[in-house]
Amino acid sequence: MTAIHGHFTDVVALLLCAVILVWSFKRVVLPPILAYLLTGLVAAGYGLMDNNHEIHLIAEVGIVFLLFSLGLEFSIPKLMAMRSVVFGLGSTQVLLSILLGTFLVSSFGFGWSESLIIACIVSLSSTAVVVKIMKESGMLNMRKGQLSIGVLLFQDIAVVPMLIVFPLMASTDNQFLVGALILALAKGAFVCLLLWAIGKWILPKVFNEVALARTDELFVLTTLVVALCAGALTYAFGLSMALGAFLAGMMLGESQYRHQLEAEIRPFRDILMGLFFVTVGMQLDVAYVISTFGYIVAAMAVLLVAKVAIIYFSAHVMGERKRDALSSGIMLWQMGEFGFVLVALAGQHHLLAPDTASFLIALGVLSMALTPYLMSETERLLKLFKLDGDHKPDFTYAGIKDESVKDHVVIFGYARVGQTIARFLKPEAIPYVAIERNPIIVQEAQTAGEPVIFGHAGQKAILKSACVNKARLVIVTMDDFEQSQIVIDALKHYAPEVKILVRMQDDTHLEDLKQLGVTEVVPESLEASLMLVSHVLYMSGVPMRRIFKRVSKERQNRYEYLHGFFAGSSDEMNEYGHSHSHSSFVTDRLEYLHAVALPEDAYAVEKTISELQLVRHKVVVKALRRDGTEIPMPDEDIILQASDVLLLKGKPRRVERAEQFILDGLP
């Protein structure tokens, strides 16, 4: 009973230490992996969980789940789409790193097998650290990000044969290694076919039945059983459990349950992987690391120079820009989390001495910790090596270039609301630029050619990139007051004259926003209430004229500034009639801009603007575009020509009638 209580106390202390360190590392923007490694170091120093084989066994299951998740994300179509980078640059980087690493390590007196193992370990980079930083900085869609992702994909593939080879090197005499490797590959091929058959014909039916049961715990349990059974199958054939989990994940990666599977297994994977890295940290000999710290720093410098040089020259030979090649090298120079997996595997099979394992773990920890800083200093390093001359602006999406943007709309926040606004602006030929912090949205939008910039709206550099000082209007779509306040303060400092429209959940902070200098505030809950009331009254038989007056009056009472914007006259009501739907009068209360292109046979061609007498339509010509040049508020005596574009401003119904008149001459 005392022993059980002692183990329980150790577990609680270990978890408490992990919580504190992970929180601390997140505060200083360092990867949680380093926090778990430090937790293991602390645990080893205080003698927690010593010789607890159950903990190590559970931690090994974390590797199984990690490889299963990796298999789920392993998309064959994506791989084929990036095959030139993956199999070209990726294979070159891994092979050259292994060859060069083996040669360098063997020159220090290590045997060839140990040198090969060390070279394999350091050839891999950290997917977790690099992808996380790229997502946060919006670099995934840039060329340097694509190069890095391609190399990381091949490294993930290269892990699989390493998982096969390492145990063979321990259990087989060197002269029979080739034969054993061929046999292992044959077994692997058979297991792949077996798992492919199971994944294609059996697992989909299993998960269909599980999904029909609509029981969350059953789906989770089935996912865990599938991952562990796949690992047990490959283990039965003398191969790594992680290999089986990877193959099972890859088979299920193309199924409709891929995202759900990944979501269900993620909590188990993250916790058990954290526990795995804790056990890795326990293996670190602090005294040895302190005594050899100078050698570790020297090895880190060699690793940095070697991997950056390999990636730089390989990418440059493939025709990539020098700045992209060097940037990718800086991203991928570190030792990765799979290196820790391979260190643990090699240690289990006595392929590496404990001191060597401690040296490699320390090398990995320090290199991963230094990576965020080096990536943040990439631009400075490019200038140092004079590689910033071939830089091309990344902000050239959808035909908009940063040096020519003006009189546009800037949208802060490109989620659903921001995208809806953009979809209405685009058909009216109103240029816009969006700023978004969600890297996934930015990546997908940029891929589709949308003018979206990644960054925080409160940063002056981002405001400058979006040319906010030249914008006709700025729209803040975030409904959080604190976030909006930061954005508005930054806008007022950088472009004090720009008009600002803010979306809010309600009118709680309306006066505060007005004092900050906001031009208009749109409270969603009140607008939704007015729309609902309008529908109720209309469906209850209340005349449309009366509904419109009541809604307009409520808006006037609530928003003093919006009086002229929302109010309508009796003449306007006569345009709608009682047969129009609610959507018509809600839309027609707003003035908007509409671009009308003049074909050769248009009625307005060879006529002046004054001759068209658009005033009677209550429509204003805001601009005239001719030969790519925009003329704001054109003179009414200007003669219109074919291919001119008139930018009309007015209420939608009036603009429609004016457009019909301009094109056909019909009153």
Produce a short descriptive summary.
The chain is of the alpha/beta class and 667 residues long. It is built from 30 helices and 10 strands.
Q: Tell me the fraction of residues in β-strands, as a range.
A: 5-15%
- What shape does the CA trace take? elongated
Rounded average pLDDT = 77
Helix content: 55-70%
Number of helices: 30
Query: Structural class, from helix and strand content?
Result: alpha/beta
Task: Trace the largest sheet across and list its strands.
Answer: 3-2-1-4-5-6
Alpha carbon gyration radius: 32 Å
Largest sheet geometry = 6 strands, parallel
Quaternary: single chain
List the uncertain runs: 390-403, 559-590
Question: How far from one another are the termini?
Answer: 95 Å
> What's the total number of strands?
10
Describe the overall structure:
This protein is an alpha/beta fold and 667 residues long. Helices cover 65% and strands 7% of the residues. It contains 30 helices and ten strands. It has a six-stranded parallel sheet with strand order 3-2-1-4-5-6, sandwiched between helices. Strands 7-10-8-9 form a four-stranded antiparallel sheet. Helix 2 packs parallel to helix 12 and helix 6 runs antiparallel to helix 8. It is elongated.
